[in-house]
Amino acid sequence: MRRKVTIQSIADFTGLSKFAVSRALSNKPGVSTQTRDTILKAAGQLGYFKDSLPAKAPGGPVDLDMRKWSGTIVILFPNVRYQNPESLYWGPVFNGISSRLDQRGINVVTLTEPKGDSLFSLLHPEAIMGVITVGSISTPILLEIRSLGIPVMMVDHADPGFKSDSIFTDNMTVMKELMELAIGRGYTRFQFIGNIRDAESFYERFLVFRAALEDKGISLSQIPALIAPEIDQFRETFAAAVTEHGLPDIFICANDTYALFAIETMEYMGLPVPANLAFTGFDNTYPSLPLLATVNVDKGQLGMRAVDQMLWRILNPGTSFEKILIQADLIIKG
Global pTM? Predict the structure, then answer.
């Protein structure tokens, strides 16, 4: 039988005081934002929040078309640069969400995650049917939403402290295809580019990258700075890494944007891209980039299916949470 997770066990796991843990779990002042996030994630990993999940509903599932829809759903973006409705990636996802909600006759409110204030100081929670998060929303905001009993659907994000429905591109399958292509072309010196802490999808792509090299007996000589670059310091981070370590045969980039930044940085450094140096991307957001391959993600379908699952959750609140995977297509460019 699983032992109950206590404040003391969370304190022991994190190495923090019971006072800090108690303040973080009750959302009271007295701990920093970073410490609060650490505690909430640890509590989720240990199973602290499991007892508060909704009980299973009796009977079978309810179909989406059994009622006429009305009300409001919030589309919540993180307060992160490049993650907004104008983004080449997130814009089509947002369009898919809003067009599906419009088909159902449901109102849309678009918000950016507030800093420091309660999300529902801006809204009346009783008027909200559900929240669809787009990208990496902080744990405290997610827990605030759950405390009000509002269903959540997460697009391209997972949080160990918060269980909910989610939808992702099938990163594992298509990334394996991409790595088989690169290894089959004879490349042997690889570097991954992209902050794997920024998104669950980036982390999944890196896991497949690493596993594919290990499976083929290719040594992993990953430069740590290249899997943790902050976007605003990317140019300095990348330039320092290639100056110290030299160039690999191929850069496997977490998405097309990182590939673009890397190529632009080499131009800024006055370092011509050698003919035998390859780049791969993901998301197919910059079709003119000189890449060996990228991956086409059906961004609109991600948004539309997120709405379908949100409405399913509203009608079936007690059913098991689901992680939906949308297949993507490898595009070989040259």
Answer: 0.80
